[in-house]
Amino acid sequence: MKNLPFIKVLSAAAVLALSAAIALPVSAADAPHKKPKIALVMKSLANEFFLTMETGAKDYQKQHADKFDLISNGIKNETDTSNQIQIVEQMIVSKADAIIIAPSDSKALVPVIKKAVDAGIIVINIDNQFDAAVLKDKGLNVPFVGPDNRKGAKDIGTYLAKHLKAGDQVGIIEGIPTSTNSQQRTQGYQDAMAQAGIKVVSVQSGQWEINNANAIAAAMLSEYPNIKALLADNDNMALGAVSAVRAAGKKGQVQVVGYDNIEAIKPMLADGRVLATADQFASQQAVFGIDAALAALNNGKKQSELASSVETPVKLIVKQ
Fold first, then answer.
1. In 10 A of CB 162, how many CB atoms?
2. Does pLDDT of 67 surpass 50?
3. Cross-sheet strand order for the sheet of 309-311
4. CATH architecture entry for 149-279
5. What is the pTM of this model?
6. 176: helix, coil or strand?
7. What is the pLDDT of residue 46?
8. Conformational region of residue 197, where left means phi above 0, alpha means psi within -120 to 50, and beta covers everything else
9. What CATH number belongs to 37-146+282-312?
10. DSSP 8-state secondary structure symbol assigned to residue 308
């Protein structure tokens, strides 16, 4: 019984020590690290370009699995804007830390992007640039990480012009007219044709799709039998144009150019069915955007503090 007071003191001391340990804050080093959740929102996964983009992003995440988690989403086709808006809404609800988006429409997605920014989500724009005037109207700064599409298309057009002569007729198959990258590529083609004295007799939308472009190209070849070239705003539409040229019996008489350098176009570059395209490094497009988002998150930057644009490479590709 003489030891009882000592036991009581020891017990009290143990309780105090345990309480103190519980009360102590966990150090930053001991705290569990929360990896940022990055959402990649693309256009149509039926387009090889965006499948390549998604694969590149997933491979990059596997190599840096300790740095971030990735959620990737794509829409059914290039014009499915309403579904892309719903995907962004879902990413807001799921509390993504950043959204990397290739918008199907340069204007229609801006309101939901504002919701994301207002929710504290970092947003990076890739592939198709948001309309600057609409962003300004909403008071938004959304960095565009991507190539100079106008310059890339002008380089293609300039190369094509070397295979034509002044006064020749050509047609342009554009993407979705409200998409900034389509507008820029079409303008780049027009810049090159004007500089070479070549006449653009028709500009029509193929909506980025093979079948639509095939129908547009067939109609152009019928209406303008002297057309010497078809300039497509992406390789998907160039594939449709090649089929139309073959069906019209004009293989070797009408040149076709595209933009993207997808795998399906490479055999056609090799055998001359396609004269030129541009490589904007699809497998790295989303990676460039992810890096920009991670830099912003790691440095605690707000959306308004981000650089307005980061130019990425684009390269003319022709038969070697």
1. 9
2. yes
3. 69-75, 37-44, 98-101, 122-126, 144-146, 309-311
4. 3-Layer(aba) Sandwich (3.40)
5. 0.85
6. coil
7. 87
8. left
9. 3.40.50.2300
10. S
Q: What would the 3-class secondary structure string for the chain be? A: CCCHHHHHHHHHHHHHHHHHHHHCCCCCCCCCCCCCEEEEEEEECCCHHHHHHHHHHHHHHHHCCCCCEEEEEEECCCCCHHHHHHHHHHHHHCCCCEEEECCCCCCCCHHHHHHHHHCCCEEEEECCCCCHHHHHHCCCCCCEEECCHHHHHHHHHHHHHCCCCCCCEEEEEECCCCCHHHHHHHHHHHHHHHHHCCEEEEEEECCCCHHHHHHHHHHHHHHCCCEEEEEECCHHHHHHHHHHHHHCCCCCCCEEECCCCCHHHHHHHHHCCCCEEEECCHHHHHHHHHHHHHHHHHCCCCHHHCCCEEECCCEEEECC
Other CB atoms within 10 A of residue 253 CB: 13
Q: Domain segments of the chain: what residues?
A: 37-146+282-312, 149-279
**How far, in Å, CA of 184 to CA of 128, rounded?**
10
CA end-to-end distance (rounded Å), the chain: 98
Q: What is the pLDDT of residue 2?
A: 38
Q: How many CB atoms lie within 10 A of CB 313?
A: 12
Largest pairwise CA distance in the chain? 115
On the 0-12 / 13-18 / 19+ scale of CB atoms within 10 A, 52 is buried
Instruction: Give how far Cα 99 sits from Cα of 31, 221, 245, 286, 314, Å.
Output: 26, 42, 40, 11, 23
149-279 has the same fold as 37-146+282-312:
yes
Backbone angle region of 184, left / alpha / beta, with phi > 0 → left and psi within -120 to 50 → alpha:
alpha
- N residues, the chain: 320
pLDDT tens-digit profile of 186-237? 999 999 999 999 999 999 999 999 999 999 999 999 999 999 999 999 999 9
Q: Is the dihedral of CA 59, 30, 94, 114 positive or negative?
A: negative
Coil vs helix vs strand at 316: strand
